[in-house]
Structure prediction request, 561 residues.
Amino acid sequence: MQPIVSIVNLSKTYADGHQALKDVSLEIAEGEILALLGPNGAGKTTLISIICGIVNASEGAVTVDGHDIVRDYRHTRALIGLVPQELTLGHFDKVWNTLCFSRGLFGRAPDPAYVERLLKDLSLWSKKDTEIMALSGGMKRRVLIGKALAHEPKVLFLDEPTAGVDVELRKDMWALVRELRESGVTIILTTHYIEEAEEIADRVGIIDGGKLILVEDKQELMQKLGRKAMIVELEEPLSGVPDTLAHWGLELSGDGCRLTYTYDPRSTRTGIPGLLQAIGEAGLVVKDFKTTQSSLEEIFVSLVKGRA
Amino acid sequence: MNVQAVKVIYKYEMLRAWETLLQSFASPVISTALYFVVFGSAIGERIEQIDGVAYGAFIVPGLMMLALLTQSIANASFGIFFPKFTGTIYEVMSAPVSFLEILLGYVGAAATKSLIIGLIILATAGFFVPLEIAHPLWMAAFLLLTCVSFSLFGFIIGLWADDFEKLQLIPLLVITPLVFLGGSFYSVSMLPPVWQTVTLFNPVVYLISGFRWSFFEVSDVSVAVSLAMVLAFLALCLLVVGWMFRTGYRLRQ
Prediction:
């Protein structure tokens, strides 16, 4: 299937010489949620800004729905909605007016019924005649989402959608993103909240220093790079790992009460039964044990650190 | 052509003027009315006719030009500067709109506002001095051309300015002195010969002269030269705006 967004060898060097993107290539399938993870200054916003037409690329090409974003900008931009990172809104504008403005700006004829539905979906209907400066931060962010959706885009870019947003609103935002996906909208979000990507993304792309380090299906990424660990809690503390267990590569906790064994969960033989047997033979009494899996955050940190 | 975009930008800008009615329309009208009271009625009655026109009436075209120029520049420059300043310009930059459509929206609205102000001032002037317009069509043409050219000029300033000081710099330090020294309150022929020559380097002289001719058939320079100068200024502004848009000057990195 043809990707809805295709990025080929994209680079961007700003006038001050800063190279924000280095040879980035990426394909985004229609209807997926892609999370672009990366530390501050990694190049996430630059990438989005180029696709949306706010920043010119230095090299490379981007197509949206098979059309070049520079040559066919009218076609591609009409398909895209952008929710920027900053709360950039006209403070004196009224909610209803600003959504109608956005719809018209993207070439769509007025449709009060659609705008009404959108405001109701975003729980903003009661505020339709309120000036934006009188809204809370969370509401302002929802207004930004409403503006981005006002022209019924097929692709939605959310640049750090939950930055500075409280936990409850963040969960509402995630629910909204899922609903949008169900309605057929392709969503690309940037975040440095790993839990956000872990919670809602289908695929995860990791950007650091302007380079796209990897793009993987979230589950595959976690399986591939996410090591599992079994922690064995002992009845009696140890002063060191017994020699008979040395070849298992166990780590002993500082208090000597826990042994940690890391293994590859994809492997057909994890070695767990053999280890438990060896522990028993060594005369250690097991009080409890549990397994844990690396979070995306740990994967991310290890990837970024590995490159540093 | 993205007609919807032009419509919403135009409507948005006009709504902004409507919501700040006092500042947008009442303020320039009041200040111009004060000029009429002071120069037209109070002092003007003690001044002889100039080129056969009563002084109070003589200054009407100049006062209208003063308001048109300052208002066109202020409206258009603020219209594009403010979204840049607040960051909301991102939406216009990411929308499927051409630069021509952006221009039609912003400059069209600024020119309309100036035109309305010009007409209100004209109507206000009628309360203070008896007015006759010898060539109404030429008057309308000069009015329209001035509104459009100086709104374009204001748009250029708004794109160029990256802070509020720069936004005010040219209107305050360049435009206002040029209008005052451009024959708003006097005929160029009243100046000593050397200053008459120097004055011809002031482009506003041509604007006021042509505009005054459309009222009273008296002018400092030929009407054809006036018209040519206004058109040349319009062309120059269009060229600069075209260059700014092609290069993404101060808009697109």
